[in-house]
Write a structure and sequence with these properties.
Blueprint lengths: L2 E5 L2 E4 H8 L10 H4 L4 E9 L5 E6 L9 E3 L6 H13 L8 E7 L8 E10 L2 H6 L7 E7 L1 H4 L5 H16 L3 E4 L2 E2 L1
Parallel strand pairs: 3-7, 6-9
Antiparallel strand pairs: 1-2, 3-5, 4-8, 6-7, 9-10
Length: 183
C-alpha cells in the first residue's frame, strides 16, 4: 500500500487515487503512448551533520562522490525512491519531504536525459552522524564535507545541483535547474 497523503483527515493510497481517477482515457491515435519518450527519474537527499556539512556517498561503481539516493523503479515516485535508497544506502528512515531542486539533465553517452529531484534530508544529530555507516555493498564509504571541499570530488553538474539545493535551503523555496544551473 503506497500512502500518498491525507485528504479530509483520512489516509489516501495510490490505489484509491487511481480508482477515483476513473477509466484511463483512450488513445486518440492508437500506439502513440508506446512511442512517447521515457525519462530517467531519480531522487536524492541533502543530509547535513550538526556542522552543516553535506553527506556524500562514495560509490564503488564510479569515480565521483554522490548524495544519498538513486533512480526510481518503474511505478515509484522520486520521493519514494529517495526514501528507499536512503534506507538501503545508510540504514536510516528519515522524514524526507521538502523539495529543494528539480533538475533536468541532458542525455550523455549511454544515459538518456532525466529529471533529478533533491529533497531535504534534514540535519542529523551528532550521535547519528558519528555512527553512520554504509549499509549497501555498492558503497565504499560515506563522507561529510563542506561544499567547497566536495566540489573537486563531484561531477560539475552534481556540484551545481548541490549548490542549488543549498541555495534553496537558504531562500526557502525550491529551485528549477537545467544541468545543475538554476533558471
Amino acid at each position: 500500500m503506497t500512502l500518498l497523503g491525507v485528504q479530509y483527515g483520512k489516509a489516501v493510497t495510490l490505489a484509491e487515487d487511481l480508482l477515483a481517477e476513473g477509466e484511463p482515457e483512450r488513445e486518440f491515435n492508437p500506439g502513440i503512448a508506446g512511442r512517447l519518450p521515457r525519462k530517467r527519474v531519480a531522487g536524492g537527499a541533502l543530509i547535513r551533520d550538526p556542522a552543516g556539512r553535506v553527506l556524500f556517498v562514495v560509490p564503488g561503481y564510479k569515480p565521483f562522490l554522490d548524495i544519498p539516493g538513486g533512480v526510481a523503479d518503474a511505478g515509484e515516485s522520486p520521493l519514494a525512491a529517495c526514501r528507499r535508497e536512503i534506507r538501503e544506502e545508510i540504514g536510516l528512515d528519515l522524514p524526507v519531504r521538502r523539495l529543494l531542486v528539480v533538475d533536468w539533465i541532458p542525455a550523455h553517452g549511454v544515459w538518456p536525459d532525466g529529471i533529478m529531484f533533491i529533497f531535504d534530508g534534514g540535519q542529523l544529530d551528532e550521535d547519528q552522524a558519528v555512527a553512520l555507516k554504509p549499509t549497501d555493498d555498492e558503497l565504499k564509504g560515506l563522507r561529510f564535507l563542506a561544499y567547497d571541499d566536495a566540489v573537486p570530488l563531484l561531477r560539475p553538474s552534481m556540484a551545481r545541483r548541490v549548490q542549488a539545493a543549498l541555495d534553496a535551503l537558504d531562500d526557502d523555496h525550491p529551485h528549477y535547474a537545467e544541468f545543475g544551473r538554476s533558471q
